[in-house]
Amino acid sequence: MKIGQMQKNFIGVSMRAKIILEIGYNHNGSMTKAKGLIREAAKLNVWAVKFQKWDIEGFPEELKNMKRSDKNAYGPTYYEHRKYLEFSIEQLKELKEYSEKKGLNFCCSGKDFNSIKQLVEELNCKIIKVPSQRYRDNQIFRYLYKERKERGLKIIVSTGMLYEDETKKSRWIDKDGADIIMHCVSLYPARKEDVNLIVMRNSFYNGYSSHEINGDCIKYAVALGADYIERHFTLDNNDKGTDHKVSSTPDQMLNIIKDIEEVEKIVSTKRSLTEQEKKHRKFYWGF
């Protein structure tokens, strides 16, 4: 289904929740496909697109030489596989400019300290995501807090693989903490029974990173107060690669956005009376 111009002008524009579409490595190493995903994201009027950066040269030798022979491999070793998929800073700069031209914010995850440093200092990326694997990395923590004061960064963190008390004690969560704290389950895919959205009732969570197959839990996260939703994005769920199965296509995202809009109509931010209720009130109580 193609998103028509009339629909594009209105879909999602009044939503409270901001959607970050995680392109990640679903571009399969193709700049053409990456730009196609950005265009589709722009049609959906989402808040941002997100890519990933990894210092593959810094991999330990045993990881570089690890054999890859599965159907999703882009090379015979892990290094060759990742090299095929990895964009350079120059390519990311082109994609950042292209995204901003399309009216989208550009985010990027740094999978290690060197990548985060490159994203901040060379790419001038203003929205940096710290993935769950690096949540307890003090070097990244100190660096990003220092740079945020000087550069006005927005910091996103995910909390997969952490017990609730560990999350609460983290230095990412204080009055000067991360701007967006995502509840997530580090499973690909995550089963609905493992998502445990009840933790969203903790006031420090203001986002949800969705890893379930069809994104069905997103509307419930919004109902529980999520201001930011992160969802993997693809053009084809059957494409070659590891994340396409836990991603949503443009058509699927359109349905998710409609669900969010419906939920936001039902879940108001404050108690208010309809005009008819006011009439009933006056009838029964006189005021």
Provide key terms for this protein.
eight-stranded parallel β-barrel, 287 residues, alpha/beta, globular, TIM Barrel, 39% helix
CATH superfamily: Aldolase class I
| C-alpha geometry | globular
Structural class: alpha/beta
Radius of gyration equals 20 Å
Count of beta strands: 8
Amino- and carboxy-terminal Cα gap: 51 Å
Describe the structure.
With 287 residues, the chain is an alpha/beta fold. It has one domain: TIM Barrel (Alpha-Beta Barrel). The protein has 12 helices and 8 strands. It has helices spanning 5-10, 31-43, 61-64, 78-85, 89-101, 113-121, 138-151, 164-169, 192-195, 218-223, 250-266, 275-285, and strands at residues 18-24, 48-53, 105-110, 127-130, 154-158, 180-183, 207-210, 228-232. Strands 1-2-3-4-5-6-7-8 form an 8-stranded parallel beta barrel, surrounded by 4 helices. Helix 2 (31-43) links the parallel strand 1 (18-24) and strand 2. Helix 2 (31-43) runs parallel beside helix 5 (89-101) and helix 6 (113-121) packs parallel to helix 7 (138-151). It is globular and about 80 Å long. The model has no long low-confidence stretch (mean pLDDT 92).
